[in-house]
Here is the input.
Amino acid sequence: MNVVICCIEDAIYGVRLAARQLDFNQDSGNFSMPCIMGDDWFQKVNYVPSPPASVVRFIEDTALVVFHLQADAEKFEQWLTRANLEVEHGFSTMQG
Here is the structure.
Protein backbone atom coordinates (compact mmCIF):
# COMPACT_ATOMS: atom_id res chain seq x y z
CA MET A 1 0.00 0.00 0.00
CA ASN A 2 1.04 3.62 -0.36
CA VAL A 3 1.25 5.96 2.62
CA VAL A 4 1.14 9.71 1.98
CA ILE A 5 2.39 11.83 4.89
CA CYS A 6 1.92 15.60 4.95
CA CYS A 7 1.42 18.47 7.36
CA ILE A 8 -0.66 21.61 7.74
CA GLU A 9 2.29 23.76 8.85
CA ASP A 10 4.11 23.47 5.49
CA ALA A 11 1.89 22.84 2.49
CA ILE A 12 4.93 21.92 0.36
CA TYR A 13 6.03 19.05 2.63
CA GLY A 14 4.78 15.67 1.51
CA VAL A 15 6.21 12.16 1.46
CA ARG A 16 4.97 8.99 -0.22
CA LEU A 17 6.21 5.67 1.17
CA ALA A 18 5.31 2.06 0.49
CA ALA A 19 4.20 -0.21 3.32
CA ARG A 20 3.16 -3.84 3.33
CA GLN A 21 0.18 -2.97 5.54
CA LEU A 22 -0.71 -0.11 7.88
CA ASP A 23 -3.52 -0.26 10.42
CA PHE A 24 -4.91 2.57 12.54
CA ASN A 25 -7.02 2.50 15.70
CA GLN A 26 -8.92 5.77 15.86
CA ASP A 27 -9.82 5.38 19.55
CA SER A 28 -6.21 5.03 20.74
CA GLY A 29 -4.44 6.84 17.88
CA ASN A 30 -2.23 3.75 17.45
CA PHE A 31 -0.67 2.96 14.08
CA SER A 32 0.45 -0.64 13.66
CA MET A 33 1.93 -3.00 11.13
CA PRO A 34 1.68 -6.81 11.36
CA CYS A 35 5.16 -8.24 11.91
CA ILE A 36 5.66 -11.99 11.64
CA MET A 37 8.62 -13.26 13.67
CA GLY A 38 9.54 -16.88 13.02
CA ASP A 39 6.37 -18.86 13.60
CA ASP A 40 4.68 -16.08 15.64
CA TRP A 41 2.15 -14.51 13.27
CA PHE A 42 0.62 -12.17 15.88
CA GLN A 43 3.39 -9.63 16.48
CA LYS A 44 2.84 -5.96 15.63
CA VAL A 45 5.03 -2.90 15.35
CA ASN A 46 3.17 -0.04 17.08
CA TYR A 47 3.39 3.74 17.17
CA VAL A 48 1.19 6.24 19.00
CA PRO A 49 2.24 9.72 17.87
CA SER A 50 2.08 12.56 20.34
CA PRO A 51 0.45 14.82 19.40
CA PRO A 52 -1.83 12.57 17.36
CA ALA A 53 -2.30 12.85 13.61
CA SER A 54 -4.82 15.51 12.59
CA VAL A 55 -6.31 13.42 9.76
CA VAL A 56 -6.03 9.73 8.89
CA ARG A 57 -7.87 8.43 5.84
CA PHE A 58 -7.70 5.13 3.97
CA ILE A 59 -8.76 5.12 0.31
CA GLU A 60 -8.32 1.82 -1.52
CA ASP A 61 -4.59 0.99 -1.27
CA THR A 62 -3.52 4.44 -0.02
CA ALA A 63 -3.36 5.90 3.49
CA LEU A 64 -3.29 9.67 3.96
CA VAL A 65 -1.78 10.80 7.28
CA VAL A 66 -1.77 14.53 8.06
CA PHE A 67 -0.03 16.10 11.05
CA HIS A 68 -0.24 19.70 12.15
CA LEU A 69 3.53 20.18 12.47
CA GLN A 70 6.18 19.08 10.02
CA ALA A 71 8.38 17.76 12.85
CA ASP A 72 5.61 15.34 13.87
CA ALA A 73 5.13 14.24 10.27
CA GLU A 74 8.87 13.59 10.01
CA LYS A 75 8.81 11.49 13.21
CA PHE A 76 6.02 9.39 11.73
CA GLU A 77 7.98 9.03 8.49
CA GLN A 78 11.01 7.81 10.48
CA TRP A 79 8.88 5.30 12.40
CA LEU A 80 7.27 4.01 9.20
CA THR A 81 10.68 3.56 7.57
CA ARG A 82 12.00 1.62 10.61
CA ALA A 83 8.78 -0.40 10.88
CA ASN A 84 9.02 -1.42 7.22
CA LEU A 85 12.56 -2.70 7.83
CA GLU A 86 11.42 -4.61 10.92
CA VAL A 87 8.50 -6.16 9.03
CA GLU A 88 10.74 -7.21 6.13
CA HIS A 89 13.20 -8.77 8.59
CA GLY A 90 10.30 -10.59 10.25
CA PHE A 91 9.20 -12.06 6.93
CA SER A 92 12.74 -13.34 6.37
CA THR A 93 12.46 -15.33 9.65
CA MET A 94 9.04 -16.79 8.78
CA GLN A 95 8.72 -20.54 9.22
CA GLY A 96 6.18 -22.98 7.85
